[in-house]
């Protein structure tokens, strides 16, 4: 089962598709289309497993089971009931239905979820005599319904829990960056052990940890032991184990550059260290507690990246004016020969940096529009006209 190729949709946050597309292409998959928050490719269930293992910037790997037209909830129920669910779902398992619905006959997408869930469990009950449990937990089988206009696409969400939940962030701090976003931000800097990676204001350490995983060529999926596809009937466990073994063998065990992560709060650095240990990269990151402006910047160039508060969720804008100005001074005085980056959701604050941006990459952090601002910190870089 599932050895036939099917459409695979990988969802992601807005701003991420161009990075996700590069990842998918580099794994040898074709790109069938690119959406505002997704990339479409094709492959077998084994391919979907491989994507779950390797992809750093995507959220969910959706494997298409069937597409059909449905004009109303009854037609949806009928058509979903015809699908061979007993072949995919063990009768004693648990399913969760998620959906993305934009069709005139549905006001509340929960109703579409309910119809879809009823159709699945009723079918299994009829064929096998027992119905699986159903509910909101995404740690077992997840079915995703995409219904736009008349077109219904029914997917297996092979990821289950979103891929941003890598499993290493055990200690949550305020305003952490999602792991998938942090990976895309690191990819946007182009850093892959070419020079050093300096991350003052590291918070829970997400950027430094993702940078280490990228530089060491460690597949982020190795960190997780549970995926939606594992609960399906016919899960190809031997193939999954071989994939994991092969990718483990490709992991590097040395780095040329240094990764340095600091924060002014002891508590943040402790959390970052623990998270790095859970991710298995603590030996590759030098941690320190200090003001960002005291963060060591070794010879050799590379990337220095900060994700300061930007007044939306933490900190007050007036206080942050000085912080952003200070970052500009730190860049100018301490980081010559590096590429400087600031990830922020407040472009007014960013103006206080007082350096000309070379590049501005749009991202979204939750629903806040953000920018990754790049500064070339040439030797002798001076304050110039803004923008
Ligand atoms: C938005 S959070 C960074 C979140 C981080 N990217 C993550 O994924 O967890 C900003 C961090 O900057 C730190 N910070 C604020 N002012 C600082 C300063 N003057 N020097 C160093 N760190 C500072 C805070 O303690 C906080 O952890």
Q: Can you give keywords for this protein?
A:
single chain, eight-stranded mixed sheet, binds S-adenosylmethionine, seven-stranded mixed sheet, 387 residues, 10 helices, disordered C terminus, alpha/beta
Explain the overall architecture:
The chain is of the alpha/beta class. Helices cover 31% and strands 24% of the residues. The chain has ten helices and 15 strands. The chain has helices at residues 17-26, 45-54, 73-81, 109-128, 179-189, 206-215, 237-249, 266-279, 317-334, 347-351; strands at residues 6-11, 33-34, 38-43, 60-69, 94-102, 133-134, 141-148, 151-157, 196-199, 259-263, 285-289, 302-306, 338-344, 359-365, 368-377. The strands form two sheets. It has an eight-stranded mixed sheet. A seven-stranded mixed sheet has the order 11-10-9-12-13-15-14, with helices on one face. A hairpin with a 2-residue loop joins strand 7 (141-148) and strand 8. Helix 2 packs parallel to helix 7 (237-249). It is elongated and about 70 Å long. The N and C termini lie far apart (57 Å). The model is unreliable at 381-387 (pLDDT under 50). The structure holds S-adenosylmethionine.
Quick summary of this structure?
This protein is of the alpha/beta class and 387 residues long. The chain is 31% helix and 24% strand. It has helices spanning 17-26, 45-54, 73-81, 109-128, 179-189, 206-215, 237-249, 266-279, 317-334, 347-351; strands at residues 6-11, 33-34, 38-43, 60-69, 94-102, 133-134, 141-148, 151-157, 196-199, 259-263, 285-289, 302-306, 338-344, 359-365, 368-377.
């Amino acid at each position: 089962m599932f050895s036939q190729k099917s459409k695979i949709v990988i969802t992601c946050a807005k701003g991420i598709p161009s990075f996700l597309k590069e990842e998918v292409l580099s794994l040898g998959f074709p790109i069938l289309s690119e959406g505002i928050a997704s990339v479409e490719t094709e492959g077998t269930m084994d391919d979907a497993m491989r994507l779950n293992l390797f992809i750093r910037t995507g959220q969910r790997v959706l494997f298409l089971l069937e597409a059909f037209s449905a004009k109303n909830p009854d037609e949806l129920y009928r058509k979903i009931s015809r699908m061979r669910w007993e072949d995919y779902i063990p009768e004693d398992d648990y399913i969760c239905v998620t959906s993305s619905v934009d069709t005139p006959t549905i006001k509340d997408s929960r109703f579409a979820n309910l119809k879809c869930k009823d159709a699945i469990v009723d079918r299994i009950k009829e064929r096998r005599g027992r119905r699986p449990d159903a509910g909101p937990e995404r740690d077992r089988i997840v079915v995703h319904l995409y219904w736009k206009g008349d077109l219904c696409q029914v997917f297996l969400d092979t990821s289950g829990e979103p891929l941003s939940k890598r499993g290493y962030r055990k200690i949550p701090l305020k305003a952490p960056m999602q792991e998938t976003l942090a990976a895309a931000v690191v990819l946007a800097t182009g850093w892959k052990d070419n020079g050093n990676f300096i991350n003052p204001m590291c918070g829970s350490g997400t950027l430094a940890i993702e940078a280490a995983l990228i530089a060491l060529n460690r597949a982020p999926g190795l960190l997780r032991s549970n995926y939606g596809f594992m609960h399906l009937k016919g899960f190809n466990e031997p193939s999954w184990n071989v994939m994991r073994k092969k990718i483990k063998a490709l992991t590097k065990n040395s780095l040329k550059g240094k990764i340095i992560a600091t924060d002014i709060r002891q508590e943040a650095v402790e959390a970052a260290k623990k998270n790095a240990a859970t991710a298995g990269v603590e030996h590759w990151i030098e941690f320190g507690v200090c003001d960002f402006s005291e963060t060591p910047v070794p010879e050799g160039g590379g990337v220095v990246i900060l994700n300061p508060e930007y007044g939306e969720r933490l900190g007050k804008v007036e206080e942050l004016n000085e912080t952003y100005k200070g970052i500009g001074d730190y860049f100018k005085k301490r980081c010559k020969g590096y590429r400087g980056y600031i990830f922020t959701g407040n472009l007014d604050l960013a103006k206080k940096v007082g350096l000309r941006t070379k590049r501005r990459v749009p991202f979204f952090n939750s629903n806040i529009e953000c920018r990754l601002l790049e500064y070339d910190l040439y030797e002798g870089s001076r304050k110039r006209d803004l923008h």
